[in-house]
Amino acid sequence: MAKLIYSMITSLDGYVEATDGDLGVGAEDPEVHTFINDLFRPVGTYLYGRRMYETMVYWETVPATPDLPPHIRQYARDWRAAEKVVYSTTLASVSSAKTRIERSFDPDAVRTLKAEADRDLTIDGPNLAAQAIAAGLVDEYHLFVTTSVVGGGKRFFPDGVRLDLDLVEQRAFGSGLIYARYRTR
């Protein structure tokens, strides 16, 4: 059975999207990007909400030219190789290969997807992840915490949820960004 992983870059105070849009220093660090590449290369399927998909579809068109840093070219290759499911009631079509649209989030369908998958899945975007968290589907939480406190925006964890987690891995980067991986008890 595959794991469902929720992972995003967050501010120190727990926001994945700041009111002003800027999460601060650390996320653009090549060392961090290379680590993320290596961490998520084994992922077989990305589950996205519409807005997250519209952000990530950029990787479909990144050229494989030698003028781009190796970590950027590698992430684009890895992203294009994975399956993608976009949950949206408004998106008319997708502009990336290996991508399908689902009109609603069905926890039972995701359970089946996890049970049948031979590679892990990720869920990206706080609104979609909140539905998976509420349904008890998320197995691991990967937080990339920047050095900034942003004071408001969209939170990594939804309100009204209680989770008891075990810290299974942590790493600090030279930029100050901290990676923390938690497993559901």
Please outline the helices and strands.
Layout: E1 4-10, E2 15-18, H1 30-40, E3 45-49, H2 50-56, H3 70-81, E4 83-87, E5 99-102, H4 107-116, E6 121-124, H5 126-134, E7 140-145, E8 153-155, E9 165-172, E10 178-184
Parallel strand pairs: 1-6, 1-7, 3-4, 3-6, 4-5
Antiparallel strand pairs: 2-8, 7-10, 9-10
Provide keyphrases for this structure:
two-stranded antiparallel ribbon; 10 strands; 185 residues; alpha/beta; Dihydrofolate Reductase, subunit A; 8-stranded mixed beta sheet
Model description:
The chain has 185 residues and is of the alpha/beta class. The chain has a domain at 4-11 and 40-144: Dihydrofolate Reductase, subunit A. It contains 5 helices and 10 strands, in the order ββαβααββαβαββββ. The strands form 2 sheets. It has an 8-stranded mixed β-sheet, with helices on both faces. Strands 2-8 form a two-stranded antiparallel ribbon.
What's the average pLDDT? Answer: 94
Helix content: 25-40%
- Biggest β-sheet, characterized? 8 strands, mixed
Structural class: alpha/beta
| The level-1 CATH class of the domain at 4-11 and 40-144 | Alpha Beta
Contiguous uncertain segments of 5+ residues = none
Q: Which architecture of the domain at 4-11 and 40-144 would the CATH scheme give at its second level?
A: 3-Layer(aba) Sandwich
Radius of gyration: 16 Å
Order of helices and strands: EEHEHHEEHEHEEEE
> How much strand content do the residues show?
25-35%
CA distance, first residue to last residue: 17 Å
Overall number of strands: 10
Strand order of the largest sheet: 5-4-3-6-1-7-10-9
**CATH fold description of the domain at 4-11 and 40-144:** Dihydrofolate Reductase, subunit A
Helical stretch tally: 5
Label the overall shape.
globular
Quick one: CATH superfamily of the domain at 4-11 and 40-144?
Answer: Dihydrofolate Reductase, subunit A
